[in-house]
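Project outcomes to date are best conveyed with an example. Our students and postdoctoral researchers have been running inverse folding experiments weekly, and each run begins with a structure described purely in tokens. The record below, which covers 205 residues, was selected by the lab manager from last quarter's runs and is presented without edits.
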């Protein structure tokens, strides 16, 4: 199934679910500093994924733009419904998400990049602490930078193709990478929505 087909199917599913669930109360999420891990969590010797592939100067710039002391992160997390990158959101049923700090990203020559801006990637980690399998194909990630909606980057050559398609069994985790073109790397808001039965989670730097 091509990415375009998956996108169209996802959009149609989203519309049908939205109609069916209109008026329903979404399950809220709470912020935690310690992110949970799944039974299949890799050890520390596992090699890093391709989202970290960027030139050396880009990495230095990313570290400078996303660096902040722990006190500022804590104050950000206390804001209503907004967490700091690196923190976990956990819903009542046990589903959890953690989005790491944005890193500089160098798209491949075949990548789909719409619009201008600073290419940056974010690692998304899902942990299914619920009693049922979770379908990550319903999950969406969007972003805003400055006063503009950030454009997502699709890069098949570096395995950036959106959320995983395999259902996540109870107790297990799955990590994947998304990338966007940010107009202002110092002003980023990312929204993660698991599906239409959970409230969304917001992150900002």
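After processing, the design step wrote out the following sequence:
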């Amino acid at each position: 199934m091509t990415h375009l087909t998956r996108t169209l199917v996802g959009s149609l599913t989203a519309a049908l679910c939205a109609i069916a669930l209109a008026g329903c109360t979404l399950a809220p999420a709470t912020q935690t500093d310690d992110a949970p891990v799944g039974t299949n969590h890799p050890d520390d010797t596992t090699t890093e994924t391709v989202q970290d592939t960027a030139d050396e100067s880009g990495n230095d710039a990313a570290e400078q733009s996303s660096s902040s002391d722990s006190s500022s992160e804590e104050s950000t997390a206390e804001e209503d419904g907004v967490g700091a990158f690196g923190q976990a959101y956990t819903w009542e049923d046990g589903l959890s998400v953690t989005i790491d700090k944005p890193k500089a990203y160098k798209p491949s020559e075949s990548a789909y990049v719409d619009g201008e801006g600073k290419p940056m990637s974010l690692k998304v980690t899902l942990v299914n602490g619920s009693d049922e399998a979770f379908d990550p194909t319903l999950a969406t990630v969007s972003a805003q930078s400055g006063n503009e909606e950030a454009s997502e980057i699709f890069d098949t050559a570096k395995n950036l193709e959106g959320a995983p398609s395999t259902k996540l069994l109870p107790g297990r985790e799955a990590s994947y990478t998304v990338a966007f073109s940010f107009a202002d790397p110092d002003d980023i808001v990312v929204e993660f929505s698991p599906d239409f039965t959970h409230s969304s989670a917001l992150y900002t730097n």
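Residues 3-20 form the longest helix (18 residues). DSSP finds three helices and twelve strands in the chain. The training component of this project remains on track.
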